[in-house]
User: Fold this.
Amino acid sequence: MDAKRLTDLLHPTVEPCVLHCPTHGDYPGELRRFLNQEIKTTCPRCAAEQAEAAHRDAEARAAEERRRARARRYREAGLPLRFWERDFDSYRTRSAEQRKALATVRRYAQQFATFAERGTCLLLCGRPGTGKTHLAVALAKTLLDEGHEVRFSGVRPLLREIRETWGHREERESAMIHRLIHLDLLILDEVGMQFGSDAERLLLFDVLNGRYEELKPTVLIGNLAVDALPDYLDIRLLDRLRENGGVVVPFTWSSERGLKAVA
Assistant:
């Protein structure tokens, strides 16, 4: 092969021309020739559609990853699956008392940094089926999505979990209690449903009193009236939970279970 032929092969050429896309028709482009190959300019509308599709796919993957990460946070925090879709906006209010309860718990979530700094606790007490767990989960979800470390548990399951550390080398009771004490927020449901033995009262006292001493806020939920709390919690502990502006929210209305949503 002579030098001129070799130069022609290696030297690319660019030729402006009108190209045709089977989908979008004619479009101005370029035809590039190099090493006996022809390279045509891609249809700009096809390129834009492909870029948009890739962008949508990336957004969908990112959204799915966020959903999975959120589900992991909720599962690790102990949120009941039934309540994962509940939030403040879906809480139905039919009375001034319900609107006040919603506003109080929502304000606690919005101003959590201030309440946490003081170790201010929240007590949700009253009849079953009145939305206490709904609001507590809405609070937990808000804080989890902000990056706080939250744990939600019934009192009896939590005490059982602590007792199960007895005799196990993997984790000692003291280590678990230490973790519970230093959570950003601990939410305990079904206060008053525990067996009430001296050993269980002592375990619960160790957790709640430890959080009190570390200025860590706690939310207690109970299907009982406020004046019945001393039957289940040490009176000294109850006084400490009310310290630093501890908020008591009474749920005195009838059960909402089975009722249709108000338009």
Confidence is low (pLDDT under 50) at residues 259-263. The chain has two domains: 3-41, 79-251. Residues 20 and 26 are 4 Å apart (CA to CA). The two ends are 85 Å apart (CA to CA).
